[in-house]
Amino acid sequence: MGIVWSRRRSDAMVQGRALHFVLRVGDREVAMKFYREVLGMKVLRHEEFQEGCKATCNGPYDGKWSKTMVGYGAEENHFVVELTYNYGVAGYRLGNDFLGITIQSKEIVEKVKKAEWPLIETPDGIVIEAPGGYKFYVEDKEQPLKDPVQKVSLAVSDLQRALNYWTKLLGMKIYHRDDTNMVVQLCFEDDQCKVELKDIGVAIDHASGFGRVAFSYPKKQLSVIESKMKKQKHKVLMALVVLDTPGKVPVQVVILADPDGHEICLVGDTNFRLLSVIDLNADKLVDEAITADTSTQWFVQNRQHKPLA
Question: Fewest CB atoms within 10 A around its CB: which of 63, 67, 173, 180?
Fold first, then answer.
């Protein structure tokens, strides 16, 4: 039986905020059609980069890439999706690490059906697969006032070990726990997107399509959390650094990995709020980038196949 928990965090300083999850796309044009026309998300920001990200936002790749943020509203009060596209990669192999994103909205259910995208209907809603194989669950319920994105689900190999990490070190609180099905939902505040951890009983394989979840904290908390991780001998993939963003404010970033290797990006909240403001030209920018993209043609002309990661 599921049990709802609503206890307070022991660390009163924690003021975390769930931001986004990173998904990798191999065909940007098809992906954008799906997120805009099928799920009805808006393009919030789009950026092009000539070389790999210092924080490995685009994965372990050094070449040209782009980042497109999509969602149902500003990242200041919505959980959104970051789509990373590497120009030299045609697709990615998925592991068993990412279980899906759940959206709650009767209106979006109807939109998905009208789009005639392949789907599976269930008593609770529909299951739909995005380009690249990532799953979305759309529940046929009234849409919440704040954000229809309700949870991002990740697989873990040892639920109690994962729970210790996400609650004691990251400061998340238990929102719902189901010991029968070995699943826990965590959050910072009840009206934010939840992180659902499900014990699948086997080792977690991230393959080449692995993603990354991002949270913001007050910047003074970042060094505190980093110190806790080092003390407990957990992985710090990138030590706390201030990253410059051309034309925008610099942002404080630290990259972690939980015991199952799920990548976690923590950013300073104040500057990230400024960095993540909606760009009204974002739709135009991504469409222009898709039109100008000749990477696939280059491989064809050189009698090569665009490689899979």
Answer: 180
Confidence band, pLDDT 50/70/90 cuts, at residue 194: very high
Taking residues 42-63, report their average pLDDT: 92
Q: Say how far apart CA 49 and CA 277 lie, in whole Å.
A: 19
HSE, CB side, 13 Å, CA atoms: give it for residue 17: 17
Joined together, the tokens standing for residue 296 give: 């696939």
Q: Are 138 and 128 in contact (CB under 8 A)?
A: yes
- Determine what percent of the chain is predicted with pLDDT higher than 70: 95
What does the CA dihedral 232, 238, 240, 242 come to, rounded to 10 degrees?
Answer: -170
What is the C-alpha to C-alpha distance for residues 136 and 111, in angstroms, rounded to an integer?
14
List the alpha helices (DSSP H) in 34-165. Answer: 106-114, 159-164
CB 218 within 8 A of CB 11: no
Q: What is the residue-wise DSSP string for 212-281? A: EEEEEE-HHHHHHHHHHHHHTT-EEEEEEEEEP-TTS--EEEEEEE-TT--EEEEEEHHHHHHHTPPPTT
d(CA 110, CA 25): 25
CATH superfamily ID and name for 3-301? 2,3-Dihydroxybiphenyl 1,2-Dioxygenase, domain 1 (3.10.180.10)
Q: How far apart are CA 172 and CA 195, in angstroms?
A: 9
- CB-CB contact of 199 with 182 (8 Å): yes
The residues spanned by each domain of the chain are: 3-301
Identify the bridge partners of residue 71 per DSSP, sorted by sequence position: 42
Amino acid at residue number 61: Y
pLDDT at 6: 42
Calpha distance 101→134 (Å, rounded): 9
